Amino acid sequence: MKKINAIAMIAVCAMLVFSCKNEGKGNKEIKDAAEEAVESVEGVAEEGVEGTEAAAAALGEEATDAIDRTQDALEKLEGIVPYAAVEAKPTFNGGDADSFVKYVQQNIKYPENALENGVEGKVTVNFVVDANGKIRNAKVVNGVDDELNAEALRVVESAPAWTPAKQNGKNVPVTCSIPVTFKIVK
Fold it and tell me: 32 lies in a domain?
């Protein structure tokens, strides 16, 4: 639409400049040229408007279809894609986040090879507590050493079921993260 308006403005300006330069000389020719330019611009404008209306109608249908497909996909994914924030967070053994930290501390076994080689550090494990309270998709996101990473992952994956998170009164999956620190005490 902006392009059509720009063409019309250029044609009008051209007619004004042309008629001013000729100061009444050949008025019939100027008038005919001006009318021809206006008719040409009007024709382009009409075609542009018709094309724009058709494109808008087609885009409207496609946009509506895309929105419907997106809503359908979101409904199918609900319960599969974990939430980042929920009304009620998942709990471990009826406690808060500290309960899970204590569980990990009590069940972690320092890998002997890492202990002998003095390997220390913090391993961060991300996981999903699904709608049934089971841990799924555990993975190391910040690791230190293959043995330490594997041990942190083993303990997280072997944890008993949690009480799942709730959103709108329904159990939902939620993403969680825990840092597991390996420190050699001398």
Answer: yes
